[in-house]
């Protein structure tokens, strides 16, 4: 094997190994990147300050407002009890019959994530009511994580058009699209995932019941619900979510931005990193406006639980501070990708990926690249950001040469990011199992089926596109 390619592989293996063992990506990504750079002849300090940090800062500039506002919105929904109120209404309202129990948990997670609540917050909001339902019905607890994962980590994360999750936002910058790109492809993908995934979990639940398997003897993180607690009605709880969706759609579809609005800023001295054109940032602007409106509505709707300005400041501060780790993790992975892209061996790696001509389109090349990198990094947003940073312009040029629009590139990249990212070392999976008080051994095999299903679905969408020209 060529030495330059070996260096890249060893660097990736090192990053995976350290991340899996609990070392922060913020620390290890630059170390692994600089190690690879110096072994292939690049100077150490410029590789760090100019290549790594230059691209990491660009990423933070583009997406920090979305990370911060999304985290604040989620924190307000969590701390006011609005998220719990909606989850309770759905889960308790549909009933205890096995099929309805699974559907209720999936539906609660889906509505919350599609409304803009971060996936981590959804786990905390949905789990207590899911556990109480399963315990009362004597259903096996180890299936709860798969139900939550199907609802919160799949279609509403990256398939359905308009979802405000970061996995649907990142491609807009690279392809000049908006959050509604490739709507038909996304909807078909969502139907496949929900249909097959729901069938699998319901079948598993009924099989466990038939074998006489009950809730089990669990003592870790068992929820204690106050039967006298006054929860918000689902109508009130939905208001902030609807606000985000409606405002985002309205600004995206009905607001026309002046194409020259950035020109004065591009010519200002000392103003770096201004976008080249408005099209690259309007989707982010729309979501910023929508999230601000959603936060305001959530604060008003949940004021009875906040009561004081001091309480409000603590909630807002907690959300803002909590966003820092998420943005820095992903920015570090983007910086790492930028260093790797400048190494001598990367041209051969890129050439191999671009040589995947199945169907005569860049979609398989894109899907394989994003899926593999998401699996390696254990992060949908991180893996996709690396892939798009390295290859998006080549895929876009390829697509334009065959008359393919960028919308399908957006949807395939987004969907591909949400497949192998949920391998055992993924942070969301580790958090989900910890919150549920379960181990990988107890619950991961069912989550893995959902992971394989998501990975499979994006290639089904590519096949359908190649046959029908689906958009």
Automatic annotation (TrEMBL):
MF (Gene Ontology): gluconate transmembrane transporter activity
The keyword Thylakoid belongs to this UniProt entry's keyword annotation: no
Keywords: Membrane, Transmembrane, Transmembrane helix
UniProt xrefs under InterPro entries: Glcn_transporter
Bilayer-spanning residue ranges: 52-74, 101-130, 180-202, 231-251, 282-303, 315-331, 447-467
Cellular compartments per GO CC: plasma membrane
Superkingdom assignment: Bacteria
Protein name per its UniProtKB record: GntP family permease
Provenance organism: Megasphaera stantonii
